[in-house]
Write a structure and sequence with these properties.
This protein has one helix and 24 strands. The radius of gyration is 19 Å and the shape is globular. It has a single domain (6-344), classed as TolB, C-terminal domain (Neuraminidase), CATH 2.120.10. Helices cover 1% and strands 45% of the residues. Strand 22 (318-323) and strand 23 (329-333) form a beta hairpin. The chain has one helix at residues 72-75, and strands at 6-14, 16-21, 28-32, 36-40, 46-48, 63-68, 77-85, 91-102, 107-117, 129-134, 140-145, 163-168, 189-192, 197-202, 208-212, 219-224, 260-262, 268-273, 286-290, 295-302, 305-313, 318-323, 329-333, 336-344. The protein has 346 residues and is an all-beta fold. The strands form six sheets. A four-stranded antiparallel sheet has the order 1-24-23-22, with no helix packed on it. A four-stranded antiparallel sheet has the order 2-3-4-5, with no helix packed on it.
Length: 346
């Protein structure tokens, strides 16, 4: 490990989940699952940001993703996802947007409004997904919505669970979605048959990819295309946790096939497509944060297929990976006391 990277510790956080790198080297925004948003700098200084919504914290739920709006530099707008409670012991993910202002004392989040909700809310506290990505032209918002450990909603186009959604920046369904003629929630849907996507990213050519947790085996990286069915729970390259088998992806060539799958699982966090600034030989490759495999996994993409190139052990579960402006890597360890690490070339 030390032969590959110089590793610096920039801070520690309580169950960090997501990170956004601010422009002009102004620090990083980090969400903590219990409901705090923090601003950190490379010198170790950390500020708590007020104005964050109350979240329903427990299981896999709490404060989730954070993303800078495409026009953040001029508007200060950011997007957050989190979990809220419903009636009768139900829960669901939501997405809101608000303005991040930098005052003379400390930054604050204001005018936060919810623009999207998982529909329906269901029992349990797993598989919220709630990852956010913006289209390269900055005009639409893509959102991963998990199937909430309920299996069958992923194949049901009347709800938005187990789906990738394509929305306008205000959370309304974007024009031209493949199931718009069905109306209602169906008009949000871009693709379906997903289990629990924890990474959602566009590559340099403008293609959308999703990084998805399988059951006992079968983690997947998928090229996400409109209208396609990605198979869950009909097929998987893993089996159910109770040992009962699931038909393999290859048995259903009519369904979208993964670019790469992992058995045993790596339990991926987020991922990025790397620019090549610090490691030119990695340009365009996916760098995947691993939790069951505690480190980074590097994947080369060729068309709609992926091939693992290398693994870099870090000793602890990695929840999040982002690229700094100079091409170094910023990583968040998972769990209590999860550290913010900077990896650079030796």
């Amino acid at each position: 490990m030390q032969d590959q990277f110089k590793v610096e510790v920039l801070g520690a956080f309580d169950e960090p989940w997501a990170m956004a790198v601010l422009p002009n080297r102004a620090g990083v925004l980090i969400t903590e699952r219990s409901g705090k948003l923090k601003l950190g700098w490379s010198d170790g200084f950390v500020a708590n940001i007020p104005g964050v919504p109350a979240v329903s914290y427990g299981g896999q739920g709490g404060l989730g993703d954070i993303a800078l709006a495409p026009d953040f530099s001029s508007t200060g707008m950011i997007y957050l996802s989190w979990v809220e409670a419903g009636s009768g012991g139900t829960f669901g993910a939501v997405v809101g947007r608000g303005k991040l202002g930098f005052g003379t004392v400390a930054p604050a989040l204001t005018d936060l409004q919810i623009i999207w909700r998982q529909d329906p809310k269901v029992t349990g506290r797993g598989h919220f997904s709630h990852r956010i990505a913006f289209s390269p032209d900055g005009k639409t918002l893509f959102l991963a919505s998990g199937e909430r450990q309920k299996f069958t909603p992923a194949q049901d186009l009347s709800n938005n669970l187990g789906k990738v959604l394509r929305l306008n920046l205000d959370g309304t369904p974007a024009a031209g979605n493949p199931f718009a003629d069905k109306g209602g929630v169906s008009a949000q849907i871009w693709s379906y048959g997903h289990r629990n996507i924890l990474g959602l990213q566009f590559d340099a050519s403008g293609q959308l990819w999703g990084l998805e947790h399988g059951p006992a085996g079968g983690d997947e990286l998928n090229l996400i295309e409109p209208g396609k069915n990605y198979g869950w729970p009909l097929v998987s390259d893993g089996d159910n946790y109770d040992g009962s088998p699931i038909p393999r992806n290859a048995t259903r060539p009519d369904l979208a096939q993964p670019a790469i799958s992992w058995t045993p699982v790596i339990a991926p966090g987020d991922f990025i497509f790397y620019s090549g600034r610090m490691w030119p030989e990695w340009k365009g490759q996916a760098l995947v944060a691993g939790m069951a495999y505690p480190g980074l996994v590097r994947v080369k993409i060729d068309g709609a297929r992926g091939a693992e190139q290398a693994r870099y052990p870090l000793g602890k579960r990695i929840r999040e990976v982002r690229e700094a402006p100079d091409g170094s890597l910023l990583l968040l360890e998972d769990g209590a006391g999860g550290r913010l690490l900077r990896l650079s070339k030796i």
